[in-house]
UniProtKB/TrEMBL annotation:
Membrane topology: Multi-pass membrane protein
GO cellular component: plasma membrane
Domain (Histidine kinase) ranges: 238-448
Domain HAMP: 178-230
Protein name: histidine kinase
Alphabetical list of InterPro entries matching this protein: HAMP_dom, HATPase_C_sf, HATPase_dom, His_kinase_dom, HisK_dim/P_dom, HisK_dim/P_sf, HssS/ArlS-like, Sig_transdc_His_kin-like_C
Reactions listed under catalytic activity: ATP + protein L-histidine = ADP + protein N-phospho-L-histidine
Domain of life of the source: Bacteria
Annotated organism of origin: Thermoanaerobacterium thermosaccharolyticum (Clostridium thermosaccharolyticum)
Length: 449
């Protein structure tokens, strides 16, 4: 036993030990007084009952009460006549009580006395009562030894109980300290595993307190670290693969320019343009990777504002006009004149990525439609095209990073779309059919105007 478990054990033991010790000392000091007080009250009650019985000349009841009280009882008139008693002969009517105690005007008194012949200390309760119109005294006595002996027995039994309780406390302290520190040991073990790189840690702590909250946080941390580690591996693998191809092409173009086409201006320009296109693709890939990393790491904070959806979409469509030059692709916008809430720049990026995918899916000619439908307090934004479509079994992969339906892309466009829409709490859905086209929709909150 070491560390916090030992400290808990010692603390628990000391606290409970002090409590029991104080309780024991209080019993040792007060139990004699408490039991004496109890016996005096008991004798007082019996004296009242016996006096009432004698006043009614009910000797039978008086005898029964006398036996029940376990005391010596006498009753004498103030003139000295014995009217009832267990011992009528001898000094003090056989109980050794000095007669001076009987010559008192007190209605009820308690006295201690010593038998003059045998030296036994006794306790007496003396009650005045009326017997056949005569003043009389009823005396109940018990040896003080009965009280002290009983007190000694109580103390011995209590000491035994205290020793048993101490043993139980020690056992409970060990069990409780082990139980209380087990979650801490589990947390320590989990932290050591995480620190050593083992992220497959799952804590099962059910304490309904801060330790359970900490365990849940550590589970979440391990899960997030595992995801981050997987993302890092995927990122390195995919970036390495995707950068290797354009870098190889650029290197090849440069070597060909140096070796063969240095003087051929037309060929030189062709290969330079090809190299520039590859550089642009790498630049876009790096931008997309950085953007996705920011979204997934929680570094992006939404800047919510109200904006006109039509104005935003028109700006995006206008920016794509150079890309559509020479292509038979029409972009139609419908029912977009609505004010919505969201991060305008991020929603612009969503529209751009969706529009870019639609353009890439159309090989020669086709139609792209961007529209919206008002549903309660939400606006459903729909982007559809008449492109080549996506196979049904591949639809579940389109939001995964680095999944590419077209080799010209980076495979990050829809992954970024997903992150942006998740940040907005939007619903989104995609459906597609080969050779017929693809439809994508997402929702935004309608602005209160």
């Amino acid at each position: 036993m070491r560390g916090i478990r030992k400290k808990l054990f010692i603390t628990y033991l000391i606290i409970t030990g002090i409590i029991f010790l104080l309780f024991y000392l209080s019993q040792v000091v007060f139990i004699g007084k408490i039991y004496t007080y109890y016996k005096i009250n008991q004798l007082k009650n019996y004296s009242l009952k016996i006096a009432n019985a004698l006043a009614k000349n009910d000797d039978k009841t008086a005898n029964e009460l006398m036996e029940e009280s376990n005391s010596k009882v006498i009753a004498v008139t103030d003139t000295g006549n014995l009217i009832f008693g267990t011992h009528g002969n001898g000094q003090g009517y056989g109980i050794g009580l000095p007669k001076t105690y009987l010559n008192t005007d007190e209605k009820l008194s308690v006295v201690e006395f010593t038998h003059p012949s045998i030296g036994v200390k006794s306790l007496a309760v003396i009650r005045a009562f009326l017997y056949n119109k005569q003043n009389a005294k009823l005396v109940l006595t018990i040896p003080l030894s009965t009280i002290t002996d009983t007190t000694v027995i109580f103390k011995s039994e209590f000491l035994l109980m205290l020793l048993i309780c101490i043993v139980v406390i020690i056992i409970m302290s060990i069990v409780m300290s082990k139980k209380l520190t087990k979650p801490i040991d589990d947390l320590k073990y989990a932290a050591q595993n995480i620190a050593s790189g083992n992220l497959d840690v799952k804590l099962d702590v059910n304490t309904n307190d801060e330790l359970e909250d900490l365990a849940m946080s550590m589970n979440s941390m391990a899960e997030n670290l595992s995801k981050a580690e997987k993302f890092k591996r995927d990122l390195i693998a995919n970036i390495t693969h995707d950068l290797k191809t354009p870098l190889g092409l650029i290197k090849g173009y440069c070597e060909m320019l140096l070796d063969f086409y240095g003087e051929d201006k037309e060929k030189r320009n062709e290969y330079l343009n090809a190299a520039l296109n590859e550089v642009d693709r790498m630049s876009k890939m790096i931008d997309d990777v950085l953007s996705l990393s920011k979204f997934q790491s929680g570094l992006v904070k939404l800047k919510i504002s109200s904006f006109n959806l039509k104005s935003l979409v028109d700006d995006v469509v206008l920016s794509f006009e150079p890309l559509l030059h020479g292509k038979n692709i029409n972009i139609v916008t419908e029912n977009l004149d609505v004010i919505v809430n969201g991060d305008a720049e991020l929603i612009r990026r969503v529209i751009m990525n969706l529009l870019s995918n639609s353009i890439k899916s159309i090989s020669e000619s086709g139609l792209i439609t961007i529209s919206s439908i008002l549903e309660n307090n939400h606006v459903k934004v729909i982007v559809s095209d008449t492109g080549k479509g996506i196979e049904r079994e591949k639809l579940q992969n389109v939001f995964k990073k680095f999944y590419k339906g077209d080799k010209s892309g980076t495979g990050l466009g829809l992954a970024i779309v997903k992150e942006i829409l998740d940040l907005h709490g939007s619903e989104y859905y995609i459906e597609s059919e080969i050779n017929k086209g693809t439809l994508f929709y997402f929702t935004l909150n309608k602005a209160d105007i």
